[in-house]
Amino acid sequence: MMREACNVISLLLDARSPGAIAENPVAAVLAETRSPAPLRQMLEKRSDTAFFGDLHKSLVDDGLTAVAATHALAAVTNWPVLSVLRSLTELRRTELLQAVIVEPTGEDPGQLVVVTATLEPSKPPKTEKAAATVLPVDLKDESDWVAVAVQVEEWWLSYGPKSVTIPPAGAPRTFGLLGDPATSGYRNVPGGWTSRITAMAAVLGMTTFVAPTPAHAKAQSLHQRLDVAFMVNGAVGWAEQCERLTAAGKKVLKGGQPGTPFNELLMAVRDTLVPFAFAAARPIAHAPRELLPGQCVYHRKIANSGGAYDSFGEGSTSPCKHGAGAFVRFSGTDKALKGMQRIYTNFEGSMLYHCRKFPNCGMYCASRGAD
After folding, report:
1. Dmax of the chain from CA atoms?
2. Residue 207, phi then psi, degrees to nearest 5
3. Distance of alpha carbon 178 from alpha carbon 204, whole angstroms
4. Is the pTM of this model over 0.70?
5. Cβ contact 333:309 at 8 Å
6. Degrees (nearest 5) of the Cα angle 221, 225, 228?
7. Domain ranges in the chain?
8. Which CATH topology does 174-281 take?
9. Between the CA of residue 15 and those of 8, 18, 135, 137, what are the distances in Å?
10. Per-10-residue mean pLDDT for the chain, 371 residues long?
11. How many of the other CB atoms lie within 10 Å of CB of 238?
C-alpha cells in the first residue's frame, strides 16, 4: 500500500547498507516484487521501465561506481525512507519524490539518493520524465544533518504531505516556539512566518505550538504539552515559563540575535533543534549496567517517546530542586519502567521513584536498597 513518509530523523537513522544485487540495474530494481514505494506501486508489469537505465547513468555521472549506483537505485526505488507525492489535477499527472541515504563504504561518504518522477495515468501507466541525483552526507557531522533537514523542509513545502510522519521512538513529538520575532527585534519577518516554523518541526515529526507571549504559553499549559521548546533571544518576560518547562523535564533551547534577519533566526532554531531531536531518537550508546546495592541515581525524562518506553538522561547523584525527600514510589504507566530497564540490567518496578511534583517535574529516581 502506498504511503507518504517525510521525516528527517528516520532518513538519517535508517541508512541502507550495500549488499549483493543483480548486475543489470533495471533487473536489480524489478527483482523486488513486494515494494510498497509509490513509484513501484504506480507502475504495472506492462509499463516501460527502460528509464531506470537512464537513472542509473545519472547516478554514475554524479560520481558513483556502477555497482554503487545499482544498489542506490534499487534502494531508493523499492524501499525509500522518504516518499512524497502530489497531484497535478489540470494536467492529469502525478509527481513524486523518493529518497534514501546509503551508508558509507570504505573511504566513500554516505550518499543521499533522490529520485523524482512524473507519471501519467495511461494504460499502462507511463513515466513522462524522471531524474536521479546523489549528494554526499557525513552521518557523523551535525552540519550535514542540518543540511539534510533544510532539503527535506523544501520538499515538505513543495509537496505538502497530508500529515506529520511519526518519528522514531525517543524523538520529541511536540515543539514550542517561545516569543514573537516581529516584536523581538528581528528584521524581514514575513507574514505567515509561523508556517516556516511548523514545516521545520514537521519534518522532525513534531507538532508545533507558537506562543508569542508568556500569557499564551500559560493559557495553553505548554509546560505539560511540550517535549522541547526554543526561546527567541530578545523576547522578554519568559523567565517564569522557562523555569516551569525546565522543572517539568522539558528541554528549553535558546538562540537568535535581535537585529538580524528572520532567516538567521530560522538557522539558529534548526542548528539546535535537529541535533537535539536526532540525539533523543538514537539508540542508547552505552551498554545497560547494573544498579548497585544502596545506589540512588536521578534521571530526567528527556522526551515523550511514541513507542513502548520513555527516554531518560544518563543520570546523576543530584536530585531536582525539590530535594531528595520529594521522591515517592512511581505508580504510573509501565513506559517509565521499560525505559529504566534499557539503562539497568536488574531494574524492577520497586526501584522506580519520581518527584511528587510530577507531572510538573520530570525527574525520576532509580533506587536500590542495601542488600
Report:
1. 75
2. -85, 140
3. 18
4. yes
5. no
6. 115
7. 8-159, 174-281, 296-367
8. Rossmann fold (3.40.50)
9. 11, 10, 14, 11
10. 82 79 84 88 86 95 90 92 90 93 80 95 88 93 94 96 88 95 96 95 97 95 94 96 91 95 96 92 73 91 60 82 90 81 90 85 88 71
11. 20
